[in-house]
């Protein structure tokens, strides 16, 4: 969970598994990849570092900066 300056809550999902579809022998196998981020609503998220993320909300060109106190990202 992360919050913007107005206190609105954003739930950010972290995806780290990538399906290996290189050939039929590996169909369905997964491997660890680089993390990607999205909100539950499907909005694109960029990790800025130090517990901050930028959420691309429709109609906003710059993105909304949100912060988390999750120790994995602080």
Please give the domain count. Answer: 1
- Give a quick account of the main beta sheet: strands, pairing sense, barrel closure: 5 strands, antiparallel
What string, H for helix and E for strand, traces the elements in order?
EEEEEEE
How many helices? The count is 0
Question: How much strand?
Answer: over 45%
Using the alpha-carbon principal axes, give the shape: elongated
| Radius of gyration computed on alpha carbons | 15 Å
Spatial ordering of strands, largest sheet: 3-4-5-6-7
| Separation of the first and last Cα atoms | 13 Å
**Unreliable residue runs:** none
Structural class comes to mainly beta
Question: How many DSSP E strands?
Answer: 7
Helix content: under 10%
Topology summary:
Layout (H helix, E strand, L loop, with lengths): L1 E2 L5 E2 L1 E9 L8 E11 L4 E6 L2 E4 L8 E4 L7
Antiparallel strand pairs: 1-2, 3-4, 4-5, 5-6, 6-7
Give keywords.
74 residues, mainly beta, two-stranded antiparallel sheet
How would you sum up this structure, described in words?
The protein is built from no helices and 7 strands. Helix content is 0%, strand content 51%. Strands 3-4-5-6-7 form a 5-stranded antiparallel sheet, with no helix packed on it. The protein has a two-stranded antiparallel sheet with strand order 1-2. The protein is mainly β and 74 residues long. The protein has one domain (2-67). The chain has strands at residues 2-3, 9-10, 12-20, 29-39, 44-49, 52-55, 64-67. The protein is elongated, with a radius of gyration of 15 Å.
């Amino acid at each position: 969970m992360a919050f913007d300056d107005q206190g609105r809550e954003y739930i950010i999902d972290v995806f780290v598994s990538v399906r290996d579809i290189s050939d039929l022998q590996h169909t369905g196998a997964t491997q660890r990849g680089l993390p990607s981020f999205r909100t539950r609503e499907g909005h694109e998220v960029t990790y800025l570092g130090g517990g901050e993320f930028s959420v691309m909300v429709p109609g906003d060109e710059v993105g909304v900066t949100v912060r988390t106190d999750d120790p994995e990202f602080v």
